Automatic annotation (TrEMBL):
GO cellular component: a single term: TAT protein transport complex
This protein's name: Sec-independent protein translocase protein TatC
Transmembrane segments: 20-38, 63-89, 101-119, 149-174, 186-203, 209-232
Pfam families registered for this protein in UniProt: TatC
Length: 245
């Protein structure tokens, strides 16, 4: 449907229905694909356990974990389609410049989200898991529940996926004229402190060096965003000088 075309409420509802059905279909297909490869998926997700065994306490816990992994995996696989249809539905209310900024941000947003989740799963989660287990193993025997293990893994990896959106969000805000590199450079120390506080709260670490190691990728993303915005501003200034010449 054309973005500049005025639509009635009935047409809006029809478009919403179409996008919901299409998105749900893609999500279910993704969930089915994950379910068909469930054994491989669970083995991959259990690598950080280093041989430890997961338990369940209720008769339906095994089914719950299977459905949970299938649904979350389906959402991840369907994410590009879901994002596109959400934006395609709400974007007609934006200006042409805002549309351009939003749609050009979709591919890097998806890439950064997947990269953040992979970092969380492969690098961050094993460190956090060993820390939590190490705290209690001195006087307690751990009995890890499958439902809690996978829920915690999903929460942590999704959090890192969101953290990796920092550069994209900052660049998008700059393109919309909301933030400037000069202000960001002047207040970067507050940004660093905020990163340490947020990461330290969401992801407890055993020592300061581990916390620094976890925060470092986020800080690098934040710092790279500042310089990307700075270079974008310089390019824009040169274009304006040429136009005025």
């Amino acid at each position: 449907m054309g973005m500049d075309k005025k639509m009635s409420i009935t047409e809006h509802l029809g478009e919403l229905r179409y996008r919901l059905i299409f998105s749900l279909t893609v999500l279910l297909m993704g969930a089915l694909l994950v379910y068909l490869n469930m054994d491989k998926m669970i083995r991959w997700l259990m690598v950080p356990l280093d041989g430890k065994i997961l338990h369940f306490t209720g008769p339906a816990d095994g089914l719950f974990v299977t459905v949970q992994i299938a649904v979350v995996g389906g959402i991840i696989l369907a994410l590009p389609v879901l994002i596109y249809h959400v934006l395609a539905f709400i974007i007609p209310g934006c200006t042409r410049h805002e549309r351009k900024v939003v749609f050009s941000s979709i591919p890097p947003a998806i890439f950064l989200f997947f990269l953040g989740m992979l970092f969380g799963k492969q690098k961050l989660f094993p460190v956090v898991l060993q820390f939590f287990l190490g705290v209690g193993e001195a006087y307690l025997n751990p009995m890890l529940l499958g439902s809690k293990y996978f829920s915690f893994l999903v929460m942590l990896t999704f959090t890192m996926g969101l953290f990796f959106q920092i550069p994209l969000i900052m660049v998008a805000l700059s393109r919309l004229g909301i933030i400037r590199s000069t202000k960001l450079r002047a207040t970067r120390m507050y940004g660093y402190i905020s990163i340490f506080m947020v990461v330290g709260t969401l992801v407890p670490s055993p020592d300061f060096l581990t916390l620094v190691g976890i925060c470092l990728p986020v800080i690098l993303l934040y710092e790279s965003s500042i310089w990307i915005i700075y270079l974008m501003e310089k390019v824009q200034e040169k274009k304006e000088k040429i136009n005025y010449a």
